[in-house]
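Bug #77: duplicate submission created two jobs. Keeping one. Sequence:
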Amino acid sequence: MKKVKKTDQPLRSHKGTIYPQPRDFVGITFAYEQRAVSVDHLQVYLARYSKRQTAQVGQITPSAVSQVIDRWKQLRWVFTAKPFASPQWVWPSKEGMQALDLQGTASTPAVGDFPRYHAATHIRFALEEQYPDTQWISERALRLQSNNKYADDDRSFIPDAVHWRKDGEEEKSYAIRVDVDILSHEEIANFLERMLDNYDFIEYYATARTLHVVKGGMGIMDLDEEDEGRITILKVEDVGSYKLIG
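Kept job's structure:
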């Protein structure tokens, strides 16, 4: 698979010691959880930790996020790249992961992964807004919980995230899947079968282009009424009028 070319390497500081700030730790951890994060999403996430009211509601300014990323680069904590016309992307380096004691391997995302990462982060924001005080467990965390049993490019056993939310008095697990590429009906059906065995519900987000394929994959399954009711297929573009990148 084609790898994205890094447009720059983390920079060393020649002007003295760079001291990390509290939101550096939450920002790097967020990029780590999502594998890579776009600058537009980073603006939104870091606004949650802003001590002052932001000029634009719900996000910090482009200049503020640029300052944060520059500091990360000076600390050698991140790589950045611009695989498409926009936006810029950030992901943690080996040094950044070691500094924050984050487990796993630092790797450069494939170009084809960025649109899915962007859609998944958008969906995370939407669900966290709709269901406050819930827990989002990232795909990366799920792989670590499985003792890295599955390869990073094997998505057939691991959802893109698990979202725990209240259903009445009980918390229920929702396996989150985001697909922007077309898969076979068999791949989709096999994934859904595995998720039904492990989680309470499944929310499968597909694009306008792939929605009919996902429904077709579900259609070849021999589901009873109860299991069919545990699966919800949604169109990514309908979540907050989302527009795909790439």
